[in-house]
Structures are given as structure tokens and as C-alpha cells.
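Okay, any thoughts on this one?
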Amino acid sequence: MDEENISLASKAYMRRLVAQTNEYPSLFKYCSFDGGVKMLSAMNLQFTRADSLNDEDELNLSKCYLEPHIKLLRDAGISDDIISAKLADAQAFFSGIGICSCGKSAHNDKLWKDYASMDECEDGICIEINQKIVIDHLLAKGIKVMALLVHYFDNVSKILPWDLFLGNTLEKQIFLQLLYTSKLRSKWADEDDVRLIYSKPFSGTHFRPQLNPKCINAVFYGRDMSQSQRIKVGQILNRYRHIKRIMTH
């Protein structure tokens, strides 16, 4: 395939990914009460480095089938030390990429339980964000973010040929999209999430770009929130009259 056809195929592939996520114009960020209050007070969005997430396989080279590539390098006389160093550099790059995981609705019991509850008390917050406004706002600030659907597999070990990463533009896009979105079905499928990817590696644990208040459509209150908690959230939201307040369950 020549470069022009590769470019056309690459653009078509990206349009397909965008079309998939456009089916979810609203994304739902589940937070603990304290985390949600901080997000609303600061009006920002948190991206977490891949190596700081609770999935040990997240953006890990364990997903990559490396053996043929390693053999090729060894046959060319490249030492194992150099090979290991190069792979470590690649892993360091992937580990620094930012991920913001969101639900497809405000009614995912798994996400409420795991991310918006404290000691079995569902007192957290679910924040509905407008996908397009968020992405356009961040892009205008020079922060390139894309939304991707997560895909679940029975096994994520060595599912990605490393040759894809070393290939042409389209092949590299396919590799990265699968690396960013492949999760183990048995552990994570109930989350059924969409994730925003910030593909520029950063240091530290979190990257929190500012949002325009128009990025947020609504705030869903956890069913076990106390009256004092609801008052505290309400005081923050009084600054933003367009943001709806919704009681869950």
C-alpha cells in the first residue's frame, strides 16, 4: 500500500473510532465524595498515568507479542542489554500516558460501588460531562485528547504483534488503539467504560487540565449522601446554574 492510500485508510480508521464514541455524547465520571467535590470546585478533569491505575496490565508490554522481534534483533547481533533497554524505554513511554475512565451512563452499579462509595456507603458523585465540548475545549488549549471505547478479552497476554507498532501510520494507530483499550473481561467487563486518552506522557501521578463549566451537564448524587454532603455540593453548583442536580435511585 502506497503512502497516499495508507493516509486515506488511516483517516478512515480514525473516523470509525470517532463514530463509535459519538454514540455516547455524554460521559459519566464516577468519584468519591471528596474527589467529586475537588473536581467541581477546581473545575478540572483528572487523567491518571497508566502505571498508577489499579489494573496491572494497563498499557503494559505484557500485552505485546515480542518474541519474533527480539529474535530478529538477536540474530542481527544486538545484545540483550540493548534490547532490554529499548523495551524499557517503550514501556516508560506507554506508562506515562494519561487515562480518564468514564461510564456510559449514570446507572452503572459496578462503577458506583467501586469508585463512588466509601465502606459500602454510596455517598459519592457521578459527574456527566459533554464529550464533544470537553474534547474541543482541551484541543483549543493545545491538549490533544481522544475518546475510545474499551474492549474486553478473555486473555490480554501477548495479544498485540509488536510489528504493528513498528509499521506504517495505520498499523501504528491500530496497535495504540488496542493497547489503550484492551482489558481483561473477567475483571473489568462490568465497568463497560469509555476512556479519554491523553497520549503525551507526563510525570507525576495525575494531570488535571481546567474545564469550561459548560463541559459539565449534570451531577448525580449518590443515594447515601448525607444532607450536609448535598448542601456542600449544592453550594459549589450554585455558581453554575446550568448544571443539573439529580438524585439517584
